[in-house]
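> example.struct
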């Protein structure tokens, strides 16, 4: 029984898809992992991804075993660190997270140092193929430097995730601009002046702070985009509100960047965006999938995760119902 059909040249679907993407973007080095979270991703891609996805299983009585995570960035690292923290809370209490910030990663020498540090966390005599070093979650604007980081991680046996690339990609499509790494040229300045009044929706089932941080970090690379307002939509936990947000984004020709702990809510948001042709980026589910594989532990999939500090509100909504005798 075959899972995939071969194409005309005898390549399987994964190889054929990789070749097609490479032809379309010859300058881009294509990773083996297919990104099913890009706007407009094909169903065929998602099915291929689904056959290779890892689902963690753990004993009921066991807590997650924290592993080292490096939050690397070409800036302060705040956005990468915040995203890593909230993602870890889907697996365990934030106090147990082992996250270290590596800021100002802007050269190949900096990248080598970060990857070497991550690789040094692997157990003695571990094989590269095991990828048992620390995981790197990074926000790097320069795509070439990001590709170099991925190559170094593959060479040294380190797991990594580019947290901001989906946002950069969809912003380039939405604004019709290429990201700028350092400064804004005259053409971009003119486009920004003409495009003033744009807005972006930052949507979350929690506070929305980490999603907003990521949007702000990405916008620094698009000074000519003319975005005046970020509409932060926190604690979005109903399909009705998702519909309302998507309709508003469609009416105002706005972009949606969202983060949902629930795969179902994430899928519904994607579905509604696709139907209304609203561009979007899911910044949370890719991280949760990567963490699940790295930590070998399943996420809880609820807003806030293992944030168990606020218990007073629970008692306030409880009520007693008398049993008739």
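> example.seq
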């Amino acid at each position: 029984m075959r899972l995939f059909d071969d194409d005309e040249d005898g390549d399987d679907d994964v190889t054929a898809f990789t070749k097609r993407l490479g032809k379309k973007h010859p300058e881009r080095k294509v990773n083996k992992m297919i990104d099913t979270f890009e706007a407009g991703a094909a169903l065929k891609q998602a099915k291929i991804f689904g056959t290779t996805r890892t689902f963690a299983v753990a004993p009921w009585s066991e807590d997650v075993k924290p592993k080292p995570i490096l939050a690397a960035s070409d800036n302060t690292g705040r956005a990468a660190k915040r995203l890593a923290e909230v993602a870890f809370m889907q697996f365990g209490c934030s106090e147990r997270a082992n996250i270290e910030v590596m800021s100002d990663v802007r050269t190949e020498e900096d990248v080598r140092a970060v990857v070497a540090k991550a690789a040094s966390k692997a157990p003695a005599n571990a094989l590269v193929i095991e990828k048992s070093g620390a995981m790197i979650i990074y926000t790097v604007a320069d795509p070439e430097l990001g590709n170099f980081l991925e190559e170094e991680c593959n060479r040294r046996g380190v797991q990594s995730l580019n947290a901001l690339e989906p946002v950069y990609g969809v912003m380039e499509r939405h604004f019709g601009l290429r990201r700028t790494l350092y400064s804004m040229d005259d053409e971009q300045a003119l486009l920004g002046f003409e495009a003033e009044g744009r807005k972006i929706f930052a949507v979350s089932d929690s506070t929305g702070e980490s999603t907003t941080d990521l949007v702000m970090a990405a916008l620094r690379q698009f000074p000519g985009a003319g975005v005046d307002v970020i509409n932060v939509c926190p604690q979005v936990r109903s399909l009705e509100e998702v519909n309302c947000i998507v309709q508003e984004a469609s009416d105002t020709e706005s972009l949606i960047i969202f983060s949902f702990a629930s795969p179902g809510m994430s899928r519904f948001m994607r579905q509604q965006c696709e139907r209304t042709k609203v561009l979007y980026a899911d910044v949370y589910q890719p991280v949760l999938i990567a963490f699940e594989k790295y930590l070998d532990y399943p996420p809880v999939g609820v807003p806030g995760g293992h944030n168990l500090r606020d218990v007073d509100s629970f008692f306030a909504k409880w009520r007693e119902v008398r049993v008739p005798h």
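> remarks
The mean pLDDT is 83.
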